[in-house]
């Protein structure tokens, strides 16, 4: 008998935390935050203690699970380096200090940066596990990392091998057969696991209500090349904004800037954290690119841009969601030495995260930029999340006995269950709709 405790990420997009129990052994999958709850706190969010973060809904509420299962936790296993999957580690992991944290080398480097930035100290043992590798936790439990594509580096689908069968946890993933960095998802291993027998598949439903499939990141590379190499912008400032964790996309931006004869400069603390992690993990190297994150570095870079000429540079920065404390927002509000001029170009390589605060912030910054006469290019982007037909393909490959959607609102989880029903599953029998705090026994 396997018991699942849906701690977080089953009533919202974010703060993912799932606990799996076999006999007296518990494994935790992911330990994330709800990033949208932190936006209004700007740079002060990480100074809040765990209780405050829990009260504002940013942290998964593991209180009851910790009381009942805390002493049995054998490992905390992370899928990838996005904050909605690892952002709570510095706040919660020490409650399970005897449990090692198992993650890919890149994800571990991101966690180490979080420790440093937040002046936190993890007491858990750290175990690096490459995608495609296997680690034996104890005689009954073995974790296998299956290579997956996503919008950040070294994402893994987790296959937990137990005496009751394999539990697969796939938050987050996409099927990209033409990634701009790394390999495509490991279809062979997924099919092999399906033949061996998967007891349960726990999979994110972030984009399951989008019909069709999610397109390749290589399309964004081509869109950027088509836009930037042909745009009439010879004497104008160009700003590109995307997610800090999208290292492959940022590398493509850097390369295109150089092809244009412009010097790329990357701005922001979160950018530095992810790109430094990529360099240290020996994945994508950013040592050849200037990154300005501290106040004196930013001031010096802005001074050089004005002195040498705005047309000589491409700026890459965060702020694609209109976050009030992001560099792009501060520029739009004339709070920095470098200011936008009529005809300057801003390219949003992102979609708006579908939460009210993100949609409002994004609307505000677009209006501010348009009022300045800035040329906007929106949604130069493909998602890092699987669409509906990708989910169908995963179900057909893995053939799980039980299907449990996660990482979504109730509406998205319901849409995932509808897909499972189309594939022959039955609600309440082998397709299960859970909400935060609920538990499920399967065999």
Describe, in plain words, how this protein is organized in 3D.
With 443 residues, the chain is of the alpha/beta class. It has 2 domains: 2-213 and 384-442, Ribonuclease Z/Hydroxyacylglutathione hydrolase-like (Metallo-beta-lactamase, Chain A); 217-377, 3-Layer(aba) Sandwich (Rossmann fold). The protein contains 14 helices and 19 strands. The chain has helices spanning 50-55, 63-69, 83-86, 89-92, 105-118, 187-196, 217-230, 247-259, 269-280, 295-308, 327-332, 356-371, 388-398, 410-422; strands at 2-8, 17-22, 25-29, 73-77, 101-103, 126-128, 134-136, 142-148, 155-162, 165-170, 198-204, 238-241, 263-267, 290-292, 313-317, 345-348, 375-377, 402-406, 439-442. Strands 6-5-4-3-2-1-19 form a 7-stranded mixed sheet. A 6-stranded mixed sheet has the order 7-8-9-10-11-18. Helix 5 (105-118) crosses helix 9 and helix 7 (217-230) packs parallel to helix 8.
CATH superfamily of the largest domain: Ribonuclease Z/Hydroxyacylglutathione hydrolase-like
* Percent strand: 15-25%
* Poorly predicted residue ranges: none
What is the CATH third-level topology name of the largest domain? Metallo-beta-lactamase, Chain A
Output the CATH class name of the largest domain. Answer: Alpha Beta
Roughly what percent helix? 25-40%
Oligomer: single chain
Instruction: Give the class from helix and strand content and strand pairing.
Output: alpha/beta
Describe this protein with a few key phrases.
seven-stranded mixed β-sheet, 2 domains, 443 residues, Metallo-beta-lactamase, Chain A, alpha/beta, six-stranded mixed β-sheet, Rossmann fold
